[in-house]
Amino acid sequence: MAGFHVENFGCRAARADGEAVSDRLRAAGLCERGPSEADVVVVNTCSVTAEADRSARSFIRRAHRLNPEARILVTGCYAQRAPEELAGLAGVAAVVGNSHKALAPEIALSLVREPLVEPAPAGQAAMVTVASMLVGDVPIWADDRFAHSFLEEGQTLPGMQTRPNLKIQEGCGNRCTFCVIPQTRGSSRSLSPEKVLKQVEGFVAAGGNELVLSGINLGRWGRDLDGGFPAGDDSSARWTLATLVRRIFSDTRLPRLRLSSIEPMDWDRDLIGLMTEFGGTRLALHAHLPLQSGSDAVLRRMHRRYRPWHYTEKVTQLVEAAGPHLTLGADVMAGFPGETDAEFEETLDFVRALPFGYLHLFPFSPRPSTRGWALHAEHPVPAAAVEVRMAALRLLAAAKSRAHREQFVGQQLEAITLHSSAMLQSSGRTAALTENFLPVEIAGRLKANRLLRIRVTGLKSEGTLEAAEAEPELDQDCAAIMSVRPKSLPLKRSSSPVSLASA
What domains can you pick out in the chain, each with its CATH number? Predict the structure, then answer.
């Protein structure tokens, strides 16, 4: 039996694409293997930074060295941005940009079953190469129309990914000066609500307990959809992410839904209101709002669509709606072109003032064909200064994360068990993730995909919570849990104002 391997780089949405490719190849009869044994290796790339590009190239070279007979198919954002560059690497047999990612499983199968044949002429079939972008014998599928870009998954199931990602939105039109995503993924496009609900229903039927909605610009889901509005006969109503989440809760028995990264200004009143209504029961108390900088001047140069005070308002509203158990995360960038010491200090002060539970930190990386590339050429921040700023951010992020997690020692939280490593299992512990997005090790060997209540007993030096199972009688079939569990059970929200600077 032919074997395949999919190696994923990048964000949750990219991982969802990789999982969809894997699902299609398994359904076609291929078996999953390591890269050194696979007949076809699919490299699902990221291109958000130069380091992401380097990581992808390094993996391709290593895979070819370990398995020179394997046919390597490269897809993803790097494949869309610089397909000829990738096609020139040894071992690469095909390059499939995001514009044609929906065809990646079919192309991968053709690499396994027979030498890649010339695709049918345009108009006769969907699989069409861009003839002007052939590199040697390596065909390239990539253009700027993105007609075959939305790779809809086969049924999302709880498997190796206990908490799988369901990508419901693709592309972005924000045009931030540092970002290459509009070029590599196109404009915003939404998976239809009917397809989303069908996926959720199938996931629940298969025993799934937690599902993560993801997208490139998730908060924009629904804005490109016409008709089929969700409420009554109001012709002015339109689908939004909030209305979709409400339909998921009303029409399915999904125990827990988690939202991945959402831009600050897309947290509208209805979406924040869902945190009050469902947070801590069926909606995870976890919000990730990309920040990038706490300096107004830098945000303007980045062409971000909010100011620092807008961001603070959204965080205040979220904390008031969700309560103190909310885990808040953000992306923060250091070294954007022209960033002064004073502007960076504004970012540090801003981050100190808000109750972040974790931060994703990035040095600025100039991306070709973006405005940031030109700004970097005009006003670069010295590499030594960027490293100093990154070190300061790492120290602050570690302190914020530890302070946030320490407050839960001695408390009870809900969690879902994950697939544990052999080493962890041998020590008699189980990996899990709390409902509010905190990593935890539970005493005892437990099956993956269990919802249970835990009692936090300590905090390890690297930041993982230690816990024991509490109230085991609550560990029932997920449908039974939702039918007997009061909405207010997981936490008690304080009616007093929450201090944002306390964390």
Answer: 3-141 (3.40.50.2300), 158-284 (3.30.750.210), 412-500 (2.40.50.140)
